Amino acid sequence: MSRPLALITGAGGGLGRALALALEKAGYSLVLTDISEEDLAKTAGALGSAPERITADLCAAEGLQTLCARLDAAPGIELLINNAGIGLPGSVAASDSALLDKHLDINLRAPMHLSQAAARAMLKRGTGQIFSIASLAGLFPLKDSAAYSASKFGLRGFMAALHLELAPHGIKVGGLYPNAIDTPMLQAEMAHPEGSPLNFAGNAKPLSPEETAHHVMKALKNGKLETWLPVSDGLMAGLVMTWPALLGPVFRYLEKQGLKKQKAYLASLGIARN
User: Fold this and answer.
1) CA 196/CA 79 separation, integer angstroms
2) pLDDT(193) > 70
3) How far apart are CA 20 and CA 36, in angstroms?
4) Which parts of the chain span the membrane according to its record (predicted)?
5) Is residue 274 part of a domain?
6) CA 173, CA 192: separation in Å to the nearest integer?
7) Residue 267, H or E segment
């Protein structure tokens, strides 16, 4: 019996590598993609069997076209995981416009196009699953991370609408909305003077990539549209955004709450802010 095939973006390290290991253990064959060929090779070397590897830049039309064509080709992809992401802090006024575009390209535009290609192929087969790694910043905005927040808010809306379209055809759509995950992306963000302490509000410590991958596997199995980590933070975000007047006071409270944990996290890594 052939093994189901999963495609993971951003598979070169961090959560992507942990997902590759977890999915292989669960019986999947893998198609891995990342902008770094070297990082893809490291992930492949950690696996028990050789995956299919595609080096692609999600900001480039050629990279997206290559991946969309693979999603439409045989053997069919039964699971798409939109994992690749970028989060570089900075105020809107001080940010380069190209950086705003890069957040939208990687965090929103690429998942939209890849999910569209996957949906078309899965509708033909009558089966499949599309899953995106989002963020609690898709429920609650982060100061000095407006482009990141916008991309994740947009991704949440896209996945919810796609779920409504595909659920009647037996195709599952879902997403994970975690707080901080201890990856190089988080470390780089926290070393930046405008890295948000909200990554630490409500959590004793960031989740490891392996812990996060475990939650992804559970979410894939139960087929829920949204999984919030922690659930309490997701509920709080929903409540605050129902009454936007609460946003300022709640944000200031959470920012103050997260500062001590943020400082302790940076100290544990030996990272000094710029």
Assistant:
1) 32
2) yes
3) 16
4) none
5) no
6) 34
7) helix 247-269
